[in-house]
Amino acid sequence: MNIETKISLSRAETFQDQDAVHEIFSELRKEDPVAWCPETEDGSGFWSITKYDDIQFVSKNPQLFSSDRVHGGITFPSQETRRLRNISRSKGVQSKFKDLNILEAGDSMIQMDPPIHTKHRHMVAPGFSPKKLSNLTPHIRERCVDILNQLEGRGECEFISSVAAELPIQMLAELFGVDQEDRTKLLEWSNVIIGGDDPDMRLDTDHVVTALTELYQYALDLHQKRREEPGDDLISMLANTEVEGKLTSINDYISAFILLIVAGNETTRNSISGGVLALSQHPEERQKLLKDPSIISNAVDEIIRWVHPVIYMARTALEDVELRDKNIKKGDRLVLWYMSGNRDEDKWEDPFSFKVTRDGPRHLSFGYGQHLCIGWRLAEIQLTVCIEEMLKRFPDFEVKGEVKRMRSNFLNSIKHMNVHYSG
Ligand code: HEM
Questions:
Q1: Residue 86 has pLDDT above 80, yes or no
Q2: Is 367's C-beta closer than 6 angstroms to any atom of ligand 1?
């Protein structure tokens, strides 16, 4: 299939029409599951991997398919991401922090391969231990109830700013061990980093420089504090990480800091907003959940399969590999489309129906293999609590009006959505 003439998968605007993209992915899964797309902005092209089993195969073989930034990393840098990098290199940010190179020099675990990846991951893993998360759960519920209290009597709200963005950012501030007042800044920086492809969210150069400079200063101050007085928060773990007897470099620390802000915040937000939208669009499914709240964990799995908060992750082939009947050459880029793998007809019956009672294989939204999302359980708890509390307090919630999606081919993000309810 000549995908090039049909759709441009490397363009953010393509993903504004998700039905059209799903149509193409369905065709690719059937006709050309490992498809060459000769279309990236720099002209190099990439392989589109659209079947569930192939995505798993690539993800669990890091010796063949690298995540390392040196080889190309896990995203295709869009023009806007490049713009951010250029700004950080050329403008005041760089001169203020001479030894650092924003968004470029540092390595966070998501862009590392084993064995070094494994060592970095082990350093923060205690922050996501079952014990730690079970201690956090009552806090998550308290925070969620407080957030929903603010909605009472209003009849409608802009759901993203009032709820979906609030809960994850409050939890992130708690995991970082910083004041809750700082969350506004954390959210703003996260939006600067991910929103560059969206004209509504894109900032002019001076604002980007200001935001990145603030982020850097904040992260560095926190680093110093946690070096002097370590606690059991995530920043203390990052600041005091030692690999092979050497302390993590400041560059790597900053990259890990940015990874956590973005990964821990935007994705969970998208699963909450996407879940509320899906339940609003499928009232019969919501009714099942209201009748039998014990099916919540199936419902949460289904929401995350359905929403695919992260659309893809990329890899680079480290050697020549044959996948299905295609010869992938050393150095070729591969894009793992979770959005497509989650609708694979060979894995789920009727994958284009949203069913809260669905049972089946694990969705791919958290990735698979070495880089399986470290925060998956935390995200699930937040989504579970949020849906449970919404159904308790405002069981008739309904999304009304236009749902505005962020322009991105990487994150499936809703930036504006009005929800109406009685109560
Ligand atoms: C619904 C919410 C979430 C989704 C859909 C999601 C998705 C993902 C995916 C797909 C990966 C795998 C990347 C790869 O294979 O290249 C990943 C990794 C990661 N996620 Fe999440 N994530 C979510 C929530 C979180 C949260 C709450 C945190 C932390 C507070 C977090 C932190 C991370 C980190 C640090 C990694 C890198 C792990 C590694 O490289 O070993 N994520 N996430």
A1: no
A2: yes
Closest residue to atom 37 of ligand 1, CA basis: 110
| % of the chain surpassing 70 pLDDT | 89
Which residue's CA is the nearest one to ligand 1's atom 43?
373
Burial of 345: CB neighbours in 10 Å, binned 0-12, 13-18, 19+:
middle
Task: Give the residue, by CA position, lying nearest to ligand 1 atom 21.
Answer: 373
Total domains present in the chain: 1
**Do residues 306 and 18 make contact, with C-beta atoms less than 8 angstroms apart?**
no
Q: If pLDDT is split at 50, 70 and 90, which confidence band does 102 have?
A: very low
If you measure from the C-alpha of residue 153 to the centroid of ligand 1, how many angstroms do you get, rounded to a whole number?
Answer: 36
Q: How far is the CA of 239 from the centre of ligand 1 (A)?
A: 20
Alpha-helical regions (H) of 229-372: 234-239, 250-281, 283-291, 296-307, 338-341
State whether the beta carbon of 341 lies less than 6 angstroms from ligand 1.
Answer: no
Would you place residue 103 in the very low, low, confident or very high pLDDT band (cuts 50, 70, 90)? very low
CATH of the domain at 261: 1.10.630.10
The model carries a pTM of 0.93
Q: Residue 364's domain spans which residues?
A: 3-420
